[in-house]
Amino acid sequence: MADFPNLSRRGFLNRSAAVGGLLVVPGLLSACSKTDAGSTDGEGALEKLRKQGFVRVAYANEAPYGYMEGKELKGEAPTLHREIFKALGVDELRPTLSEWDGLIPGLQAGKYDVVSAGMAITPERCANALFSDPEFISPTAMMVKKGNPKKITDLASAKAAGAVIGVMSGAVEDSYAKGAGISGNKIKTLQKPQDGADAVKGGRVDAFLLTGISLRWLAKTNPDTEVTEAFVPELEGAKQFSPGGAVFRKGNEDLRDSFNRELKKITADRSRYVGLLTEYGFGATEIPPATLKTADLCKG
């Protein structure tokens, strides 16, 4: 099993997370027309993938988003992408491991066709690559002791109960807690996800605040805990969805659009989505709203 991810690199926990390495390769993008999707002989990218029988995907070995277990590529993104590309007539995913900051540069350089790593959709990244429609959102949840002794269900109930809340250092959850009116002396900073689980089990905090996806994964190795139902926090009246998606080279709009048509069939089917991804901690609360558009997310 892959190690628990360094989630702050994903852009979910820290809104100012670095997007270092998003370098445009000179001349690469200009070599491709909008419709040929990266092929220089005029052949569409999807047709090319169908003929060769596989699609090259990059992953960063971050569970539960995209990771290798034994010889099998697993996780949220590869599971969805395998389903989508099979529907498009491409039966095999061929994985390439990449450092997180090298994912988009490698895509631009033609090392692979798709980033299959659950990457957060941000304006900075949109400037360098094409994102699919959102594959998921990352609502927030809380890890509590088994039995939830303070009956905490969200930040409002945590405030009412006088609960001590744990957050990761530099993480956006700190601003969620403060935005909900929880005072600074009731917020404890922790360094790693496991530190949060340990603080809950040891009684140093009443709840550990993080994405529901991450906490459900963490709970697999911390059986004396449980995770509350996920909820979408607000900051200054704006809902904080933290969506992620597949990434394509600029010029591959046709491939991206074909991918989106199949993705929509899955996200519109609650039971199918949950059935595919429940193994990785994704449930109905992670299904992106139909009104959440990548074009708007790319504008910031």
Provide tags for this entry.
single chain, 300 residues, alpha/beta, 5-stranded mixed beta sheet, 11 helices, elongated, disordered N terminus, TAT_signal_bac_arc
Mean pLDDT across every amino acid position? 87
Residue runs with pLDDT of under 50 for 5 or more positions: 1-42
The largest sheet is:
5 strands, mixed
Straight-line N-to-C gap: 35 Å
Strand order, sheet with most strands: 4-1-5-14-6
Helix content: 25-40%
> So how many helices?
11
Oligomeric state of the chains present here:
single chain
Gyration radius, to the nearest Å? 20 Å
Strand content: 15-25%
Q: Give the strand tally.
A: 14
Order of helices and strands: HEEEHEHEHEEHEHEHEHEEEEHHH
Shape: elongated
Task: Specify the structural class.
Answer: alpha/beta
Keywords: Signal
Domain Solute-binding protein family 3/N-terminal: 54-277
Protein name: Ectoine/hydroxyectoine ABC transporter substrate-binding protein EhuB
Pfam families: SBP_bac_3
Your description of this structure?
The longest helix is centred in the last third of the chain and has 15 residues. This protein has 300 residues and is an alpha/beta fold. A 5-stranded mixed sheet has the order 4-1-5-14-6. Strands 9-8-10-7-11 form a 5-stranded mixed sheet, with helices on both faces. A two-stranded antiparallel ribbon has the order 2-3. Helix content is 30%, strand content 19%. It is elongated. Helix 2 packs across helix 9.
